[in-house]
Amino acid sequence: MAYLNTYADRAKKFINPSAKLLLETIERKQSNLCVSVDVTSSKEFLAIIDAVGPYVSLIKTHIDIIDDFEFSLIHRLQELSIKHNFLIFEDRKFADIGNTVALQYSSGVHRIATWAHITNAHPVPGPSIIKGLASVGLPLNRGLLLLAEMSTAGALARGPYTEDAVRMARDARDFVIGFIAQHRMEGVGLCEGQNPDEAEDFLILTPGVGLDATNDGLGQQYRTPEDAILGSGCDVIIVGRGIYGRPGNMDIDKVQRQSERYREAGWNAYLQRLKSRGE
Ligand code: 5BU
User: What highest taxon heads this organism's lineage (predicted)?
Assistant: First the structure.
C-alpha cells in the first residue's frame, strides 16, 4: 500500500504541485500537524499562527469568520507562511454548481484561489463541482480535497456517498489530491471485477482530533493522533481547540506547548506506522 511509504517517497509520486509541496514540508518539518485557526479577530488569528508556525506543515482557515477582515490580513498570513514554512488550507467546503463555485473560489472579498494552496468541496453536486473549481485552481497549481466523510456524530457522508466521492476523485487526479475523511480511501468504490491499484495514493486529512476531550457537546467527536495516524492510516491530523482552547485571553505560551505536544504525538504515530511495515 502506497500510504505506508515515507512522506518523502510519496511526494515524488504525486503530480499535483500542492500535494507534493505539502508532503515535502511534512517530511522537512517532521510535522503531520495542521492547526485549524477558528477565531474571529485578526489579531488573535495572527498571534496563534505565529506561535504554532514552527510546529505545523499546514494552517487551516475559515476566513469568512474573521470579524475585522481586510485583504491585508492575507498578506500577513502569507508572510507567516514564508517565515515558518507552512502551506495554507482554506476550509471553504464548496457545495454548488460549477459556475458558482468557480466565482466563489476566484472572487468576492476573499479571493481564496489567490492564496490558499488547498481548499475543499462537498461532492454532493457531482463531478461538475471539481470541473468548476479546477478551471480556477489548476492554472494556479492549487489542490482540492473532497469531503468523503465527516467527524460529526450522525454524519450522512458514508456508504455509497463516500464511494461515489472516491470515484469522482479518481477521475480528476491532477486536481483532487485526497480527502477529508476518517479512514483511508484507496480501493473504495471499485466495481465488481476491478482490481485495486496498489500504487493509488490519496492524502487523508482528518479533523476531530484531541488528546484531552472525546467530544465538544455540539456533535464533534475526537480521537487521538495515534488512533488517526496509526489506527486509521490518516496522513495529517487537523487540530483546533485542542491546541488553543477557548478564543479570547489565550495563553500564547500554552498554545505553543500544545502545538509541540500534538506535533510530537502525530509524528511518533507516523514513525510507528513506518516501523509496522516490516512486521
Ligand atoms: P476542533 O476545534 O479541533 O474541533 O476544530 C475542527 C475543525 O475542523 C473545524 O474548523 C471544523 O470546521 C473542521 N471540520 C471538522 O471538525 N469535521 C469535519 O468533518 C470537517 C471539518 Br469536513
Answer: Eukaryota
